[in-house]
TrEMBL record:
Keywords: Heme, Iron, Membrane, Metal-binding, Monooxygenase, Oxidoreductase, Transmembrane, Transmembrane helix. Gene3D superfamilies: Cytochrome P450 (1.10.630.10). GO terms for molecular function: heme binding; iron ion binding; monooxygenase activity; oxidoreductase activity, acting on paired donors, with incorporation or reduction of molecular oxygen. Pfam families: p450. Its cofactor is heme. The chain crosses the membrane at residues 12-31. Belongs to the cytochrome P450 family. InterPro entries: Cyt_P450, Cyt_P450_E_grp-IV, Cyt_P450_sf, Cytochrome_P450_monoxygenase. It comes from Cercophora samala. This is Cytochrome P450.
Length: 528
C-alpha cells in the first residue's frame, strides 16, 4: 500500500504535470517541425529561456541571440515556436512587400495593447492589414509628406523659440521633454482641425511625462507578451480604478481622450457642413485629392474603407497608434542623434557649416524663402539623420513574420509554413562588414562616394517590406527640420552637453521599441 502522502491529490497533480512537461519537452526536442533547427536545447524546450533574458535580464535577449548565432549559425531556434535569422539576404525575403509573398506579422509580442488592438499595426492578417494600411499609406506617401513640409518647418521652429527663451540663462534643458512636445504638436498639426502648441506651456514636464509613460508601456510590453493573461486582467479592471492604480494608464487614457475629442469635433464639423461620410470609390480615392490642408481625421473618415472599418473606435485606434509611434520614436531618435552631434565638435562644425552655407540668413523668414526645399540638398545633414537612426535601432528585435501558405527554402533548411522568423535590427545595423566600427557615429559613411548598397540592404531601423514604418518619409523630413532648427543659421542659443554620457541615451534594452538602460539620465543640455 502507498503511504498516504504519496496518494494525496497534490502528488497526483504534480505527477501529471511532470509527465505532461516531459512529453511536451520530448515532442519539442525531437518531433516538432522545428526540431532540426540548431539552437540551445533549453530554448527549444521552453519559453522560460527567453523570459529569463527578456524580463529578468531586462530586455537583453537580443544580445544573447547574437551570441547564439555565432555558435549555431545563421538560422537558429530561439524558443519553442520561433526561428531567428542573421542573414541580411533572408531579411529582404522574409520582410518582403511582394504581393505574392503573403507574409503575416507574428504579433505575439504586441498583443493586448487594448486601445490600439484594432489598428493596422496589430493586424496579423495580410489582407486586412493591406486594406487598413492603404488610406494611411496615401496620407504618408512621399508626395503628401513633401506637401506637409511648411507645417513641419513651422512646428520645428518652435524648438528654436523655446530654446531662445532660455538664451544665455545657463539653464539645463531636458531634451526628451522638448522633443516629445514638438512631436506631439506635429501629429496634432497634421491630424486635427484644432492647432495645438504644447511648447508654449510654461512647464514642459507634465507633457514630457508622456515620453516616460510610453517608455514604461514599451518596457511592460515584454511582460504582457510572455503572460497574455495579465492583459486580460488589466482589461477587466474598471478604467476609473485602474487610473488610480497606474498613472501610466492614466496618461495613456488622457492621450486617447485627446484623440477622441478631436475626432468627435471633426466629425461634428463635417456633419454640420453637410459633408457625408460616404466612402469614395477606388477610382476617386487617390492622393490627388489630398490638399496640404487635409487633416488625417478627415482623410480617414472620407477614405474608401468600408463603413465597419471607419467606426470611431477603429479610426481613433489608428490615430492613437500614429500619435504613439511618433512621440515615442522621434524623441528617442533625436536624443541619440543630438547627443552624438554635441559630443563630436568636428561633426557639429561640419553640420553647422553646411547649413549656414545652404540656408544663409533667410532661415528666419521661411515665408519668403522656402528653406525646406534647400534641406534636400544638405547631404551632411541627411547623413547625420541616417547615422542617428542607425544607432537608435528602432526596435532592437524586429517583430517576426510568417508565411502561412508556403515553406521558405533557405540553404539546407526548409522553414515550414506558418513558422515565425525574426531578425534583429541590432545585428543588421552593427554588421562590421557593412558598417566598419559599427558603434561609432560616423555620418561620412552615408555620403555619396562612401555609401554602398549593402548599407541600405542592412539598414533595419525603420523595418522593411509591407509593414515598413508608415511614417518613414516623415521621419526623415521631421528629423532634418529639427536638426536644422537647432544647428542651422539664425539667432539661437549654443547647446552644450550637461552630465550626459553615451549610455544615458544609447538604445540598450529591447522592448516594444528600443529603450535606454534602466536609470539612464537622458539627454540634458546647458543653454548658453
Ligand atoms: C525615428 C522614428 C521611427 C522609427 C525608428 C520607427 C520604426 C518603425 C519600425 C521598425 C516599424 C516596423 C515595426 C514592425 O515590424 O513591427 C514601424 C512601423 C510603424 N511606424 Fe514607425 N518609426 C518611427 C516613426 C514613426 C512615425 C513618425 C510614425 C507616424 C506616422 C510611425 C508610424 C508607424 C506605423 C503606423 C507603423 C506600423 C506599420 C504597419 O504595421 O503597417 N513611425 N516603425
Amino acid at each position: 500500500m502507498l503511504p498516504e502522502s504519496v496518494s494525496s491529490p497534490t502528488v497526483v497533480v504534480l505527477a501529471c504535470l511532470i509527465i505532461y512537461m516531459c512529453t511536451l519537452s520530448v515532442y519539442r526536442l525531437y518531433f516538432s517541425p522545428l526540431a532540426r533547427f540548431p539552437g540551445p536545447k533549453l530554448a527549444a524546450v521552453s519559453g522560460w529561456y527567453e523570459f529569463y533574458y527578456d524580463i529578468i535580464q531586462d530586455g537583453q535577449y537580443y544580445l544573447k541571440v547574437e551570441k547564439l548565432h555565432r555558435k549555431y549559425g545563421p538560422i537558429i531556434r530561439i524558443n519553442p515556436w520561433e526561428l531567428h535569422a542573421s542573414d541580411p539576404v533572408l531579411f529582404s525575403h522574409i520582410y518582403s512587400s511582394g504581393v505574392k509573398q503573403r507574409v503575416e506579422k507574428y504579433a505575439w509580442s504586441q498583443k493586448g495593447l487594448r486601445l490600439i488592438d484594432d489598428s493596422h499595426i496589430l493586424t496579423e492578417s495580410h489582407e486586412l492589414h493591406r486594406l487598413r494600411r492603404k488610406p494611411l499609406a496615401t496620407f504618408f506617401s512621399p508626395r503628401n509628406t513633401e506637401s506637409m513640409e511648411p507645417v513641419v518647418w513651422k512646428v520645428s521652429q518652435r524648438i528654436r523659440s523655446r530654446l531662445q527663451k532660455l538664451n544665455g540663462s545657463g539653464s539645463v534643458m531636458v531634451m526628451e521633454d522638448l522633443f516629445t512636445v514638438v512631436s506631439a504638436d506635429l501629429v496634432a498639426a497634421f491630424s486635427f482641425d484644432d492647432e495645438i502648441d504644447l511648447t508654449q506651456t510654461d512647464e514642459l514636464q507634465p507633457l514630457g511625462s508622456i515620453y516616460s509613460t510610453l517608455q514604461t508601456v514599451a518596457r511592460v510590453s515584454a511582460w504582457l507578451s510572455h503572460f497574455s493573461w495579465i492583459t486580460a486582467l488589466i482589461n477587466a479592471i474598471p478604467p476609473s480604478f485602474l487610473m488610480r492604480l497606474a498613472p501610466t494608464v492614466a496618461t495613456n487614457n488622457r492621450l486617447y481622450s485627446l484623440v477622441k475629442k478631436q475626432f468627435e469635433s471633426s466629425r461634428a464639423v463635417r456633419a454640420s457642413s453637410s459633408k457625408t461620410d460616404d466612402p469614395l470609390s477606388d477610382d476617386e480615392f487617390t492622393d490627388e485629392l489630398l490638399s496640404p490642408d487635409t487633416k488625417l481625421i478627415a482623410h480617414l473618415l472620407h477614405s474608401n474603407l468600408p463603413p465597419h472599418e471607419r467606426t470611431p473606435n477603429r479610426v481613433c485606434a489608428e490615430l492613437l497608434t500614429i500619435f504613439m509611434a511618433t512621440i515615442f520614436n522621434i524623441p528617442r531618435a533625436m536624443m541619440v542623434t543630438t547627443y552624438h552631434i554635441l559630443a563630436n565638435p568636428d561633426i557639429k562644425a561640419k553640420l553647422c557649416g553646411e547649413l549656414n552655407a545652404l540656408l544663409g540668413p533667410g532661415v528666419d523668414s521661411p515665408q519668403e524663402t522656402p528653406v525646406w526645399a534647400l534641406l534636400n540638398k544638405a547631404e551632411y545633414l541627411k547623413a547625420c539623420v541616417k547615422e542617428g537612426l542607425r544607432l537608435f535601432f528602432g526596435a532592437l528585435r524586429g517583430t517576426a513574420r510568417r508565411n502561412l501558405h508556403a515553406p521558405i527554402a533557405y540553404r539546407d533548411w526548409v522553414i515550414p509554413p506558418g513558422t515565425p522568423v525574426g531578425m534583429s535590427a541590432w545585428m543588421l545595423n552593427t554588421d562590421p562588414e557593412v558598417y566598419p566600427d559599427p558603434l561609432v557615429f560616423r555620418p561620412e559613411r552615408w555620403l555619396p562616394g562612401n555609401h554602398k548598397p549593402e548599407m541600405d540592404r542592412n539598414f533595419a531601423s525603420l523595418g522593411k517590406g509591407s509593414r515598413t514604418c508608415l511614417g518613414i518619409h516623415l521621419v526623415y523630413v521631421f528629423m532634418r527640420h529639427l536638426l536644422a532648427a537647432m544647428f542651422g543659421p539664425g539667432e539661437k542659443p549654443e547647446l552644450r552637453l550637461f552630465e550626459t554620457e553615451e549610455s544615458d541615451v544609447a538604445t540598450a534594452v529591447s522592448g516594444l521599441s528600443g529603450l535606454a538602460k534602466k536609470g539612464a539620465r537622458g539627454l540634458r543640455v546647458v543653454v548658453e
